[in-house]
Design brief:
Elements lengths: L8 E5 L12 E4 L11 E4 L12 H19 L16 E8 L2 H4 L2 H15 L3 E8 L4 H6 L18 E5 L4 H13 L4 E8 L2 H17 L4 E10 L13 H16 L3 E3 L4 H5 L18 H14 L5 E3 L7 H10 L29 H12 L25 H13 L7 H7 L1 H9 L7 H30 L11 H7 L6 H20 L8 H13 L5 E2 L4 E3 L2 E3 L3 E3 L2 E7 L6 H12 L7 E7 L8 H9 L5 E6 L1
Parallel strand pairs: 1-2, 1-4, 4-5, 6-7, 7-8, 9-10, 15-16, 16-17
Antiparallel strand pairs: 3-8, 11-14, 12-13, 14-15
Length: 629
């Protein structure tokens, strides 16, 4: 597929497809052959009822829509994670789908609810839908055993005594299943899973079988298949819409057996997924189980069934370290090693179940160390980030560990007020759907308390890791957790770290650049600095134009959230004039941007560098002034 970025991506589904070819601007999704056109995706639905004619056609439509949205999401390229302008990260979709209950799906209320939940959970711009009336009932095809359905004929017995949960095979959902089976010995548990690949399916099956054996067959495992067929390569593996597919299957089971709610077990910090780094523009922080995602899903499902009461998230106010203690509470620690949390299983070099350096692996290890359960987890990691992690693209592993430690240390949010100031939009969205107190002030206190408890658990884990792994007879590897802890890098903001790096090579190059002849003017100075910066990253010159209040401001140089201004002090220029110029520039840019002022002072017009720098840096957060000669 071409990696272009169209304004709108059209997705043709099922019988509407005239081809099985997927391009950047048009995706065709077929779950079964149509004449000479062969299927390119697999969708396996459960048989929910014995008599297909009695199954609501609206719910059959939902299953197909959710499957198409999931597959379409994976086939649409987002662009590189390090794109400076983020143009391609958020996409726009137009799905063309045949449905049985055309009147319901074609209503404005339904389309708006679909768009609201999908755009929030994915960070995309828009999900529009064009529905077409069809008379091809999937239930009738099911009875004839066509390829649309997987042929898994299963039923839940005694539905009124059954709870439905989403079951991924990770620590949180596994802990939720264990806790529920122990606390409700008179009830059965229906665990809903997704067959995405053989490795994940094997993990889920092993865990389900272990729970069945441990708890007298009170767990039933319902798994379904939705993936590409051989030869169709996914273009994006974020799988932001997977929760929509998951929830649609769970809701369908609820509808089939008269159950009005289902459970999602995910720790509160992962669900909130606060922006740990400055490059999470356009929802790079996942919102899979965010309180607002679950709330919007619930609103959408109520349109399908007004009796649906909600999606319950029992771990909404728990840290992962608190959750995993469930295993020791019920004496089932040995099952921990069978769970898999990794999101990058395809990138592993060895046969270990975890890559060891994705965000999920990092969170898993910190939580198990904090809960003193790490001995039940090893050895299961391809990379041991405590001892050494790879020098990967854009130093991503370092950034993930650094961001985790920085958030845990509450560097930007030492007080509740700072927390609200740092994350105003995020806190507001969480509060709207928070399951705790109804009082706004109490909600903020509960949310901030969760963040603080998370921080304590991470720092406890880091301390334990250092105590167990640090060998004073050997040098510390810089690219390791031990190296980060030794250097205390997590005390510095990402902007401060980048300024340090830039300052280091400017100190070496500016003096050499102008050792024979000073720059002609400030324009010439900027030309030379541009050449230096270009050799050390994707810096732009006088771009982008930043709109702040009523003025448009173009910094001399920029890299994401760091703006760089160059100032040339000549003999006729007084330090006070430079101070005034820098102060004026500070007022032109958004307050969430970092500022670095490169001041070239060859004739030493600034008598006291320290005073000059400190006076200016005190005027603005994340402001750095550096003087060169």
């Amino acid at each position: 597929m071409s990696q272009q970025f169209p304004d709108v991506i059209r997705v043709n589904c099922g019988e509407l497809c005239k081809s099985n070819v997927c391009t950047a601007s048009e995706i065709n999704l077929l779950h079964k052959d149509i004449g000479y056109i062969t299927a390119n995706i697999k969708i396996g639905y459960l048989k929910f009822v014995a008599d297909a004619d009695e199954f609501p056609i609206r719910v059959l439509d939902l299953l197909q829509i959710a499957a198409y949205v999931f597959c379409g999401d994976r086939m649409a390229y987002r662009g590189k994670r390090d794109n400076v302008d983020f143009v391609s990260w958020a996409r726009s979709f137009e799905y063309h789908i045949p449905v049985l209950d055309f009147g319901f799906w074609n209503s404005d209320d339904t389309k708006i609810a679909l768009n609201n939940v999908l755009t929030f959970m994915t960070g995309d711009r828009i999900y529009s839908f064009v529905f077409y009336q069809t008379d091809k009932n999937p239930a009738e095809i099911l009875n004839k055993q066509f390829s649309l359905f997987s042929g898994e004929y299963q039923n839940i017995c005694e539905a009124e005594k059954t709870d439905i949960i989403l079951f991924s095979g990770g620590l949180d959902s596994l802990a939720g299943a264990v806790q529920r089976l122990n606390e409700h010995p008179d009830r059965t548990l229906c665990a809903v899973s997704h067959k995405s690949n053989n490795t994940v399916q094997h993990t889920q099956t092993v865990l389900a079988d272990a729970l069945k054996k441990q708890y007298d067959n009170r767990l039933q495992h319902y798994s379904f298949e939705c993936c590409n067929k051989d030869g169709l390569v996914s273009r994006d593996e974020n799988q932001r819409t997977r929760i929509f597919l998951f929830a649609a299957i769970a809701f369908s089971l609820c509808s089939s057996f008269g159950i009005n709610s289902f459970y999602v077990y995910e720790n509160g910090m992962t669900s909130m997924n606060l922006s740990k780094q400055t490059d999470v523009i356009n929802a790079r922080a996942s919102r899979t189980t965010h309180p607002m995602t679950l709330g919007l899903l619930c609103k959408f499902f109520k349109l399908l069934d007004p009796d649906f009461t909600g999606i319950k998230a029992p771990y909404y106010n728990k840290t992962k370290a608190e959750i995993v203690k469930v295993f020791s509470t019920y004496g089932i620690e040995s099952i921990i090693s069978s769970s898999v949390s990794c999101s990058s299983t395809r990138k592993k070099k060895r046969q270990a179940p975890h890559c060891g350096h994705c965000s999920q692996c990092i969170d898993r290890r910190f939580s198990l160390f904090a809960a003193d359960l790490d001995e039940y987890d090893a050895p299961s990691y391809d990379v041991d980030f405590i001892k050494e992690f790879p020098d990967d693209d854009k130093n991503e592993t370092y950034q993930k560990i650094y961001a985790t430690l920085r958030l845990a240390n509450l560097e930007e949010i030492p007080t509740q007020y700072d927390f609200i100031s740092e994350y105003p939009d995020e806190v507001l969205n969480i509060m709207r759907y928070w399951q705790g107190s109804d009082n706004a002030e109490d909600k903020v206190t509960e949310i901030y308390d969760l963040v603080c408890r998370y921080g304590k658990s991470v720092l406890k884990a880091a301390t334990k890791m250092r105590n167990e792994y640090d060998d004073i007879t050997k040098p510390v590897v810089k690219r390791s957790l031990l190296g980060i802890l030794t250097d205390r890098e997590f005390f510095k903001s990402p902007i401060a770290q980048r300024v340090e790096s830039i300052d280091e090579f400017l100190n070496k190059t500016i003096a050499l650049m102008f050792q024979s002849e000073n720059p002609k003017n400030e324009q010439d100075l900027n030309d030379k600095i541009e050449a230096i910066l270009k050799g050390h990253g994707d810096f732009t010159r006088e771009y982008p134009a930043l709109q702040f209040w009523r003025t448009a401001y173009k910094p001399d140089h920029a890299q994401e959230h760091l703006l760089i201004e160059a100032k040339y002090i000549r003999e006729a220029t007084t330090p006070s004039k430079i101070t005034e110029g820098i102060a004026a520039d500070m007022t032109k840019a958004p307050l969430d941007a970092g500022f670095m002022f490169v001041v070239y002072d060859p004739s030493r017009q600034i008598p006291d560098n320290e005073h000059f720098i400190s006076e200016l840096e005190s005027r603005r957060k994340e402001c750095f002034v550096r003087v060169y000669r």
